[in-house]
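Morning F.,

Quick status update on the modeling queue. The single chain you submitted on Monday has been processed. Sequence for confirmation:
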Amino acid sequence: MFALKRPISLVIVLFWFSFWMLNALDKILARKDLGSFRWWGNDRIEKFTMYFDRLSIDAAHVYPTLMFAGIVEFAVALPFLYAGYHLAKGKPGAARLADLAIALSIVIFLGFAIFDVIVGDRAELLEHSTYVGVLLISFLAIAAEMFFNHLRRLTQEENVEA
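Structure tokens below.
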């Protein structure tokens, strides 16, 4: 019978995988007509056009910049997917992979926050800073689940020996 040993960690990892994948798609598919529907997403093209205007950068660089950011976000999603696979299969090393994915995510948000300060977008700065806090809480929740699972195993071992 299949028994998931770390369901909270799996949900957290799958959440962050979905988050990064959808964010990547939001940048790559910004305002694209996909046939059956149009991908609207966030107003990234407009925002980046305004940012680049503030920085005196040609607006022709907006879409390539969004594509680059989307590719980076897709790359950050992959360690979460891999960690989720390890968690679902009960393979060792899942926590280490999740930690790596969370650390990479924090680094990406740090980069976004620096850009937010440069272009003067305090709302985006607050948003990106909030995500760092949620990532730290995710890290703590994964660590807590590991700790309590360890305590549960120790208690079960003591009960078997008694």
